[in-house]
Amino acid sequence: MNKIFKGTKIVILFAVLILSSCATPNKVACPSFDSGKVTKSKKYKNGTIHFNLRKAFAIKKGHKSKLKKFSNPHFIDKQIADSNALKLDLFASNEKVNSLDLYQSNFNLIEQNQQKEYNIEISKKLDLKKERKVVNTFTKPLQNQIFEKKDTLNKNQETNIHEKSKRKEAIIKGGALVLMALLAVISIPVLGTVTASIGLAAILLLDVLVSIGIISYYRKKKPKLAKTTSFLRLLYSAIFGVGIGYHIFGNLAMYNKFWSLGLIVFGFHLIALGILFNNEGGKKWVNYTIKSLLIVAGIGYTLLNVGLLLVPNPIAFSDLIKPIFIAPQVLGEILFALWMIIKGGKKA
After folding, report:
1. Cβ neighbours of 186 (radius 10 Å)
2. Alpha carbon distance 289, 338 (integer Å)
3. How open is the CA angle 239-243-245, to the nearest 5 degrees?
4. How confident is the model at residue 36 (pLDDT cuts 50, 70, 90)?
5. Residue 51 burial (CB count, 10 A)
6. Per-residue pLDDT tens for 2-24?
7. pLDDT at position 40, please?
8. How high is the pLDDT of residue 33?
9. Helix or strand or coil: residue 210?
10. Is 271 inside any structural domain?
11. Quick check: helix, strand or coil at residue 47?
12. Rounded Cα gap, residues 134 and 127, in angstroms
């Protein structure tokens, strides 16, 4: 019994020693009475990592060389150096992160400043627009007045230029009519001569000039009637030109026929010219007088020359009609020519 009791005491004492070793500060791995496995404990002290699990595994498998490796001071120094390097890398990475954060914060500040400047510029532009609107409200009426004055000045200049050109046209046309009358006085008494042929050819050229002058002078007021009047005079000039050709070759009978035929068209031309004529703000009696004389002269020319071509006794018919229409024929064309020279184209 005593031996057994002593044995149990030794066993209990041995167990207490083992358990007391488990409670030491090194925390050596204690055996598990249940599973027989080895527990794992890690401690991080001064950057050193103790892998007790690997030591226990090495002891259990009998790999003493591995145990020596882990217990080797050179290996421990290497582990410490690696841990320090890892710390340096972490510190460097933290510095990089801090620098990136600083850069981002600076970038944000720059963006904020740029946005503020942009907002200031926009506000300035808006203020300028408001000021311009305010100024335009006061200046627009003045600008409109200025533009209206410019328009009126331009219109006045255009009208002055047109009036000057119209005045020149009127003088040219009136002078041509007077010159035609003088040439007729010289040429008609000496028909059949070279002098008459030259005078008649000059009259023909002046007729064409007057025809063109009628269109240019009356084209704005009555363009259709002006074209009709001018066309009738050009048609008369063409027929008269054929008669002048016969006159140059000495055939006076054919000249007289074509001239009479041309004077019929010329009569219609004078009627249209009387309708077209306007005194342009002058005295009404002058306007009515010249109009009436031109229309009556046109009727006289047409009636007389139709009769000369159709009636059996043209000489008697001519002696009957000429005294009636001779005064309107002479006065109508002369007064129209003088009106063109004196007043034609002037401002009303």
Report:
1. 13
2. 13
3. 115
4. very low
5. 14
6. 555 556 666 676 666 666 555 44
7. 43
8. 44
9. helix
10. yes
11. coil
12. 11
DSSP structure class, residue 48: E
117 within a domain of the structure (yes/no): no
Concatenated DSSP letters for 168-183?
A: HHHHHHHHHHHHHHHH
User: What's the pTM value of the predicted model, to 2 decimals?
Assistant: 0.56
Distances (CA, A) of 95 to 88, 92, 99, 101: 10, 5, 6, 10
Rg (CA), the chain: 66
Q: Tokens 């010219």 appear where?
A: 273
Q: Can you list the alpha helix ranges (DSSP code H) found in the chain? A: 2-22, 52-61, 64-71, 73-187, 194-218, 223-248, 252-276, 284-310, 314-342
Rounded-to-integer distance, Cα 274 and Cα 294, Å: 5
CA dihedral 20, 26, 31, 36 (to 10 degrees): 170
Domain residues for the domain of 317 are 170-342
Q: Which is nearest to 235 in space by CA: 200, 266, 258? A: 266
Cα–Cα dist 157/86, whole Å: 96
Residue 287 lies in a domain: yes
Strongest mean pLDDT among 23-32, 64-73, 103-112, 137-146: 103-112
The span from the CA of 21 to the CA of 42, in Å, is 17
- Cα torsion 279, 282, 288, 289 to 10°: value is -90
Residue with tokens 């041995």: 14
Q: What pLDDT does residue 308 have?
A: 87
Residues, the chain = 348
DSSP classification of residue 347: -
Q: What is the dihedral of CA 226, 229, 234, 235, to 10 degrees?
A: 140
Tokens encoding 154: 């331009």
Task: Return d(Cα 182, Cα 337) in angstroms, integer.
Answer: 12
Question: What's the total number of domains in the chain?
Answer: 1
Task: Assess if residue 9 is contained within a domain.
Answer: no
- One-letter amino acid at 10 equals I
